[in-house]
Amino acid sequence: MTKLMQLYQQYKSIIAYLFWGVVTTIINLASYQLLIMFTNVSISSATTIAWFISVLVAYLTNKVWVFGSEYTTVSDFLVECGRFFFYRALTLLIDLAFMNVGVHVLGFDSDLQQFILKVIDNVVVVIANYVFSKWLIFNRNKEIADK
Fold this sequence. Notes:
It is a single chain. The chain is mostly helical. It has one domain. Its main location: membrane. It is found in: Membrane.
């Protein structure tokens, strides 16, 4: 059992990131699907709204439970939050491009095809988000806090 606990401690942030990544992916997918099914918004608008909702959840969960950011001043919080949203905006562009190419260029026009495309899209986005968070957002916070 101690070997299992050692492995957990070693990979705790990755496990937490994957767990919360699944939660935010489900939020993104559900938001997107509900907007497509019950509103008259475009694919780009639905993608953007779903992105915004899921990024809010992602920021809070990443800050507290994944990377343990402990900024206490308002200015540090705003810098961190700004970096988080900036890098998430880059992955939003990936998300939008992925969906628009899939639907408008490759012709995935049925609801099921678009949903499968959105799932694949989210896998790519989650990987990119982890890289950005681990090495460009929350890692820099620890370096700044250590000074």
